[in-house]
Amino acid sequence: MSRLRIVHSTGYSYNKRVTLSYNEARMTPVTDPHQVVLESSVKLSPNHAAMNTYRDYWGSRVTAFDMQSSHDHLEVTATSTVEVHRSERVANDDEVLDWGELRSVKVSDAFSDWLPQTQLSSTGGEVEALVRDAVAGLDPHRAAATVFEWMRGEMEYVKGITGVHTSAEEAWLERKGVCQDLAHVGIGALRALGIPARYVSGYIHPKADAEMGEVVSGQSHAWLEWWDGAWRSWDPTNHKPAGDLHVSVARGRDYRDVPPLKGILSGGGGSALKVTVEITQLV
Questions:
Q1: 3-state class (DSSP) for residue 193
Q2: Cβ–Cβ under 8 Å, residues 111 and 227
């Protein structure tokens, strides 16, 4: 178990004044079976915006706000304290479905959001053929583990090669990408096999040996979850399940369902972006 304090700030400095903007922030962690949000707040600068919060279709907590007076910058700071208690149970044969059960109408209907490919998760025919050959004769649980091991040998974590709109197929052609790309490739490969999979955005404490109370520069992060009779997690960047240093913020079909901050505006003339994440382990 860990208790983490996260301060995430996203700011834009505009080249020209913005006269109006409408925005959504997904920067507040969720309470789920693996973590409890003890406290959270979202602050804005300028602070003359009307704010409201709601849960979106995927269960993520959204802070919606609009700026209806002229401004030359926007900064959103989300502060949260979260207690994380993940325990990745070893799968037993009784709970893991076979392929027939996984592809039944009942399961297909229940997990219809997590089976179709999206523009960002589609990996293309080459990956689909490779993973089908790699998992031949394996049950869905062992097939997923084989996909992750195959990815580890094929994909390399490299910054600066891709962007937020890069698809899994494009990342695969480069054989490189960041956490978002590795999650998309993994999700696409699992969906190609008929295994429900979803994208998770959040944070990871990058320094397991940090002193308690030490403020470290953290990271926004992405990983995936898949279902073979139970939901399970995998962090393809770090080659392991999500643990007590992972904090979930939002889930969706791909990155487009979970961006930390998005909106529309009038004016601006371009902008400079600055993002900081500070994480402190308290327990």
A1: helix
A2: yes
What residue ranges in the chain does DSSP mark as E strands? 2-25, 35-45, 50-55, 61-67, 71-84, 156-157, 176-177, 197-204, 215-217, 219-227, 231-234, 246-252, 261-267, 271-281
Q: Which residues pair with 250 in a beta bridge?
A: 201
> Which sign, positive or negative, has the C-alpha torsion 223, 226, 230, 235?
negative
Q: Which residues, 6+ apart, have CB-to-CB distance to 34 below 8 Å?
A: 84, 85, 86, 242, 248
Work out the burial of residue 181: count CB atoms within 10 Å of its CB; fewer than 13 is exposed, 13-18 middle, 19 or more buried.
buried
CA distances from 100 to 38, 144, 186, 274 (A): 42, 16, 22, 48
DSSP letters for 7-57: EEEEEEEEEEEEEEEEEEE--S---BTTEEEEEEEEEEES---EEEEEE-T
Q: What confidence tens digit (pLDDT) does each residue in 226-270 have?
A: 999 999 999 999 999 999 999 999 999 999 999 999 999 999 999
Q: Which two tokens stand for residue 131?
A: 């993973």
- Predicted TM-score (pTM) of this structure: 0.95
